[in-house]
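Please go through the protein record below and see whether the fold suits the sequence. Record follows.
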Amino acid sequence: MTSTTDTAPAPERTPTAPSVRAELLDCVQSNLAVLADRFHGPDTHLALGATLRFAPRPGPHGLPTLEPEAAHQLAAVADVGLVEHTRRYDVPAGELAALAAAHGPLYVMADSHDMPWLPYHRQRHMQHSYLVAAEGDRALVVDAYHSYTPWGLAAPGEWTLDWAELPPSSLVVVFGPAEAGAPETTPGSEYGDVDGYTAAYAGHPDRFAALDRLTTETWLLARSRRLHAAFLEHTGRTPGPGTAEHLRRLDRLAEQAFLAMRRVQRGRPEPARLMTDLADALHADRALFAAPPDPSHDTVTRTVAEVLGVDTAALLAAPALTAVPGFNSFQVVEIVEALEERLGIEFAAEDLLPENLHRVEDLRRLVASARAR
């Protein structure tokens, strides 16, 4: 966390009525959601919460994190009917105007520390998304992110800025709508090691670092579960008994983590029960949301790994099949034919589109659809 004595006023915000469920989305999802609903209609974005995950990976300070990598989140855009047309990395601010003029609205990732419309401006470094388009000779920024921060409220809005006021971009993507529209997405869940995750936070020697990170972790946990519950309701499914109370429990846990972090920051002891409450909440979360394992999932994973000539761990670590070294489009045909033969199914011809065939999750979804038919 960094601070500054610079008190330059933030640019004037034009409030916008929340077109998406911003309170359920993280800083990568929020503006993908705007595009999904813009192209395919209200609440399309709720499919971003179709699959519920507890998948710890190595994170800051040697702690595990549930925060998904942006590459994995961007690989999931097919779930909300988005197709990627153009991608650029490390784009200077001066080049954004030309890209917007050539391609229309841009989805941008950059450092929140350098975004003058956010309360994080000159306070905290983290990757954050926004949309930008040309409005005359200036930049029209749209950011649907909603969150309370120690420096004020981040609320959905629009800002008109000079192009030079925008930060250098780590990633710029042009998305368009999938011709077939947003697919029907089925709910699912993936769970990793709950006990190992809890033990890592309980035993970390730097208590401020652990609790500072846990504040973000519990915030993500609560928000993602609310998004999943909203997806279930939107698609006519009934969340499991006790879901509403569990969601309130996760909100309380996030508050506990934040208060514990602030106490330790001021040199006071952390509450003794926080780690017990964390473990109990995570086990309850798994009991409530974890679906019985589908044996076909393993078959899909093994089959794809065999065709691509990699082990399953390397396959699942890749955000998409196209990221596996040596991947080529001929292997997709081989994967489809192998799955049909091994599982005794036949895929619907209209489902065999490139955007449905480049992720293990999408192939599992197609298998489930074929078996249902």
Summary: The chain has eleven helices and 13 strands.
